[in-house]
Amino acid sequence: MKKRKLGKLEVSEMGFGCMSISANYGPAADRNKGIEVIRAAHDQGVTFFDTAEVYGPYANEELVGEALAPIRDKVAIATKFGFDNENGGTLNSQPKHIRKVVEESLKRLRTDHIDLYYQHRVDPKVPIEDVAGAIKAFDRAFGTITGTRNLYEATRGCTLAQGSGSAS
After folding, report:
1. How far lies 10's CA from each of 25, 72, 73, 107, 127, in Å?
2. Cα(136)–Cα(39) distance, integer angstroms
3. Percent of the chain, pLDDT > 70?
4. Mean pLDDT within 107-132
5. What letter would DSSP give residue 72?
6. What CATH class does 3-155 carry?
7. For the stretch 43-80, what's the b/e string if a residue is b when 16 or more beta carbons lie within 10 angstroms of its beta carbon?
8. Which of 17, 89, 135, 137 could pair with 167 in a Cys bridge, judged by C-beta atoms 3.0 to 4.6 Å apart?
9. 55 flagged as catalytic
10. With contact defined as beta carbons under 8 Å apart, do 79 and 48 qualify?
11. What pLDDT is recorded for position 32?
């Protein structure tokens, strides 16, 4: 399969959106079948897999994490933030919330890094510059979203200037 560059990532030209395995558009697939399908996609050359904490919620990241754990070093995982699943799925892209949910995504995905982490829906209550500043702080520290304690250490001293998009 042909490859493409997404920033620093080189991934298969065809990616695998995993959402529907865990419901959203009909009933969830059998867990073992879902894992089998994800691994079969990799066997066919797919190296880019997309999920989100809101799918399930949480169930899809858990499934993707289990399916890709044995081949984690051969694939790129994308996941998304932007919802507060503990409060009815409302939008929440506050930097503090992003820090919390990335930690949880890392655990569900059974990995120490996320290759592509991005906002699922724009939160009109949070300036996009603040969201970008939070992600930039993660990227500046690690190049990718990496590690639980290290992520906290990299961002705990950051204060985001209103509308500036920069961490200080």
Report:
1. 30, 14, 13, 24, 30
2. 32
3. 82
4. 92
5. G
6. alpha beta
7. eeebbbbbbbbbbbebbbbbbbbbbbeeeeeebbbbbb
8. 137
9. yes
10. no
11. 98
Q: Give pTM, 2 decimals.
A: 0.84
Burial 120-151 (b: 16+ CB within 10 A, else e): beebeebbebbbbbbbbbbbebeebbbbeeeb
Separation of alpha carbons 138 and 134, rounded Å: 7
DSSP state of 160: B
The encoded tokens of residue 14 equal 């065809």
Residue ranges per domain, the chain?
A: 3-155
105: number of Cβ within 10 Å: 23
Name the amino acid, one letter, at 146: T
DSSP notation for 90-137: EE---HHHHHHHHHHHHHHTTSSEESEEEESS--TTS-HHHHHHHHHH
What six digits make up the tokens of 141? Answer: 């520290």
